[in-house]
Specification:
The protein is mainly α and 318 residues long. 73% of the residues lie in helices and 0% in strands.
Length: 318
């Protein structure tokens, strides 16, 4: 078995980003293997999923220990993601060996990357809206789990992972934020990494049976990925990802455009535009004054009550 140092470095980079942000595993590693290491798409997907199966528990252990996981969501996500991930991997394994399908699979991965990036932008917009309303500084409320939409998120993300290896982080984490906007970034990352373990296990099993796992590629990636994802997970529970997210988004856009056979100039422009958009959206939003937003709708003229008058009204009558 031949070990490749350059693959180990690539695994370390991706592992760090996965642990730090909860996104970027399949979305970065699969196109990286296809575009830079000339690994056939089906083999890249299969090897990436087996790599992720070993890598995910390392980051999950850190988040479980630091209690940044919403345990109530996990069983409902798994109920949707586990069977759909196996189904997706079985489907692509059955039809993905011919050269024509391998070529079309690059386009499918590119489209999946664009969908993943769109979800990331939507996530940032919701983050910004929540911050502007001042909800980020409030004490967290008890999470009310919505089984139907949570299972649906698992089904969508699981099938995407099984077919393309993209979605375990970038897609599901964005859908979770849209469904549960009050989840903090730490909870999103922690919950997503833990729920990805049964999902990726199901998809990896399907690819071991029906796909094309390359042991030398997987081992080389894991040499770098395992220590890096541990470091990234420790950092993510202490620091925001405002710096890494635009970089990941730029890489996702560039990879997607390359897989879709866009000329080099378009790839560069698209990658820079995606990174710039995430930089702008990642800036802290100015919080609205107290009473502005949802509360001001109950005030007939939309005015903000005077602070002194409010205190006087609240004080006991003398």
């Amino acid at each position: 078995m031949h070990l490749d140092l350059s693959l180990a470095v690539a695994g370390a980079l991706v592992g760090l980003l996965v642990g730090l942000t909860g996104m970027g595993g399949g979305a970065l590693l699969t196109p990286l293997l296809v575009l830079f290491f000339n690994v056939p798409p089906l083999a890249a997907i299969s090897s990436d999923l087996v790599t992720s199966l070993v890598m995910k528990p390392v980051g999950a252990a850190v988040h479980l220990r630091r209690r940044t996981v919403q345990v109530g969501l996990l069983k409902w996500l798994a109920a949707g993601s586990v069977p759909s991930a196996f189904l997706g991997s079985m489907l692509i394994g059955k039809i993905g060996h011919s050269s024509s399908v391998q070529s079309n699979l690059k386009i499918v991965i590119g489209i999946a990357l664009l969908a993943s990036l769109s979800c990331t932008v939507a996530r940032q917009l919701v983050d910004r809206r929540t911050s502007r309303r001042g909800q980020g500084d409030r004490r967290p409320e008890a999470l009310i789990v919505k089984p139907g939409r949570t299972v649906a998120i698992g089904v969508i993300g699981g099938f995407a992972v099984g077919v393309t290896s993209v979605g375990a982080g970038s897609l599901i984490i964005a859908l979770l934020l849209l469904a549960y906007p009050r989840l903090s970034p730490k909870q999103l990352v922690g919950t997503d990494i833990v729920q990805a373990i049964p999902l990726v296990a199901s998809a990896a099993l399907g690819h071991l049976i029906f796909g094309e796992v390359r042991l030398s590629v997987t081992t080389s990636l894991l040499i770098g990925a395992i220590p890096a994802v541990y470091i990234g997970a420790r950092l993510s529970s202490q620091a925001p990802a405002r710096v890494t997210r635009p970089i990941i988004s730029g890489v996702l856009m560039g990879s997607a455009l390359a897989l879709l056979h866009v000329p080099a100039a378009g790839i560069v422009v698209g990658a820079l535009a995606a990174a710039a958009a995430l930089v702008i959206l990642g800036r802290p939003a100015r919080a609205l004054p107290a009473g502005v937003g949802r509360d001001h709708e109950s005030i007939p003229d939309g005015s903000i009550p005077d602070e002194a008058a409010s205190r006087e009204a609240a004080s006991p009558v003398r």
